[in-house]
Amino acid sequence: MKKIFDINSLQSKIEKLKKKNKKIVLCHGVFDLIHLGHINHLQSAKSFGDILVVSLTTDKYVNKGPGRPFFNEKNRAKVISNLKMVDFVVINNSATAVSLITLLKPNIYCKGPDYKKNKDDITGEIKNEIKSIKRVKGKIVYTEGITFSSSSLLNKFSDNFSDQQKKKLSKINRKYNSKYFEKLFSNFNKLKVLIIGEAIIDEYIFCDALGKSGKEPVLALREMKSERYIGGSLAIAQNVSQFCENTKIITMLGKDNTYLKEIKSKLNKKIKLNFIEKKNSTTIVKKRFVDYLSYNKLLGVYNLNDDLLNQNDEDKFQKILRNQIPKFDLVIVSDYGHGLISKKTSDLICKKSKFLALNAQINSSNVGYHTMRNYKNLECVIINEREIRHEFRDRSNDLKILIKKLSKEQKIKNLIVTSGKKGATLYNLDNNKFVYSEALAKNVVDKIGAGDSMLALIALCLKSKVDKLLSLFIGSLAASYSTETMANKEHINKMKILKGLEHLLK
Fold first, then answer.
1. Residues 87 and 150 occupy one common structural domain
2. pLDDT above 90 (res 25)
3. Cα separation of 401 and 142, whole Å?
4. Which residue from 26, 93, 195, 211 has the least number of CB within 10 angstroms?
5. Per-residue pLDDT averaged across 369-377, rounded?
6. Structural domain of residue 120, as residue ranges?
């Protein structure tokens, strides 16, 4: 018998069954790895009525850390539909069960015993679901019995994480709990954070490759759609603003404030935007042509002016910095080498900042010209392995040797070097110790924006004197989420990070 239905077909069936006085019970969840706790829960739920409907959270809304769900929505639905006590299965294309409850109007909404204490649900969504079931004149019922955790089982026994990662997770789990992270993130809100750096618009043009041109050896593309995302210092500010009420950007836009209206429409309203106009320039736009099926990048076309600011503009910029920097607890600099920050300006930033974090990127337009040697006495720096090897023109020496050398030369207290799939290394100059975090990303779509996400979280953690290993782990988690979408299409979400930590540390 067919059990899996779309929401509209199921709604029709449920209405007919209710007219026959059948009592409808709804259970909602991820059901990523079916275990005894699920079986007991569903059997108990069925005892409260005549028809048991199980709704599954669709893949894109499963927020339980990298690599989750372990089984996709179709496979999860198939497994649930094979359970005898289940009458109908539906994939819920929403983050919560609220809309589903409104549509199906079940008599009973059934949750497991771990939801009895509503205050333990850090999302607060269980309260909204309770309101929803009451509005349709139904009631919520909690099952009894021993609970198990799919997350705990998958963390321990699946190949989602290496043995080394499992040891790190276990070590962190023994020391910290969800209440610690809630309090930590709440304390972030007290920090005043200033972001300095170039504003960038990332434009992604999704194309269908038609093939080689008939007359020339040129790849012909058909444009399917295009999307624009805010990047650079704008993306970092957007990430920080999810945690901090007082967030400000000092940046550079093109002449006539090109893209200002679009930038303001996409920025969190609580972010304060302070900028100068750069003469003879446009706001930086980086276009990337992308295959719309594979998401492979085919070509990049950048519209920018890499010249340094003229004297008048630099004087304006430095005046703003002198006035603003002392007012902030944490300064984050994203120096992409596109002419905003001169050596004189970087000296000013280093001198005036109470706590300075830096990402000085080498990219296709500045390689061979840009350097992070303009900065000294920093609390936190993030670069990738390619960048540190470029700084020393050294491709063969042990990475730890280069990390120590750069830290001492530039007086960097915490230097984080990312190495792609190999993960990230943090070196603390004061105690001469290294900590490591393997890469958490599982479903990489695009790496652009990952460093910005990592920088935002690690800077907040280190400023708040969080343990170095934990700081690196939280930053790596933020970066892993960033790689799951194109560029900075989606920014860091505080609740998503909290939920990810909660499930990873079970």
1. yes
2. yes
3. 57
4. 211
5. 78
6. 7-160
Q: Which of 129, 160, 191 marks a domain boundary?
A: 160
Q: Is residue 145 part of a domain?
A: yes
Residue 337's pLDDT band (boundaries 50, 70, 90)?
confident
Residues 229 and 263 sit within 8 Å (Cβ to Cβ): no
Among 174, 151, 194, which Cα is nearest to 349's? 194
Measured CA to CA in angstroms, residue 181 lies from 122, 173, 456, 466, 475 at distances of 11, 12, 16, 11, 13
pLDDT at 421: 84
Within this chain, do residues 191 and 228 fall inside the same structural domain, yes or no? Answer: yes
Query: The pTM is what?
Result: 0.82
Q: What is the mean pLDDT of residues 306-330?
A: 95
The pLDDT value recorded for residue 34 is 83
Do 154 and 186 lie in one domain? The reply is: no
Q: Which residue has the tokens 């990312």?
A: 418
What pLDDT, in 10s, does the model give residues 61-93?
A: 888 777 788 889 999 999 999 999 999 999 998
Q: Are residues 118 and 223 in the same domain?
A: no
Q: Calculate mean pLDDT across residues 434-442.
A: 86
Helix/strand/coil for 1: coil
Cα distances (angstroms) measured from residue 352 to each of 360, 375, 382: 18, 12, 20
CATH number at residue 426: 3.40.1190.20
388: number of Cβ within 10 Å: 22
| Number of domains present in the structure of the chain | 2
Quick check: is 76 in a domain? yes
3-class DSSP assignment, residue 398: coil
* Claim to verify: residue 237 and residue 314 sit in the same structural domain: yes
Query: How high does pLDDT run on average in the chain?
Result: 88
Which tokens hold the place of 252? Answer: 């550079």
Band the pLDDT of 149: cuts 50, 70, 90: low
What lies within 8 Å, CB to CB, of 244 at 6+ separation is 188, 189, 191, 192, 193, 460
Which amino acid would we find at residue 122? I
What does the DSSP 8-state code read for residue 244? -
Is-contact 199 284, C-beta < 8 A? yes
CATH classification of the domain holding 132: 3.40.50.620
Looking at the structure, tell me whether residues 205 and 136 fall in a common domain.
no
**Helix, coil or strand: residue 197:** strand
DSSP per-residue codes, 15-73: HHHHHTTPPEEEEEE---S--HHHHHHHHHHHTTSSEEEEEEE-GGG--SSTT-SSS-H
Strand-pairing partners, residue 155, are: none
The answer for residues whose C-beta is within 8 angstroms of residue 328's C-beta and 6 or more apart is 192, 193, 194, 248, 353, 354
Classify residue 123: in a domain, yes or no. yes
Q: Do residues 149 and 196 share a domain?
A: no
Residue 81: its H or E element? helix 73-81
Positive or negative, the CA dihedral 397, 402, 404, 405 is positive
* Whether 500 contacts 64, CB under 8 Å: yes
Q: Decide if 176 is inside a domain.
A: no
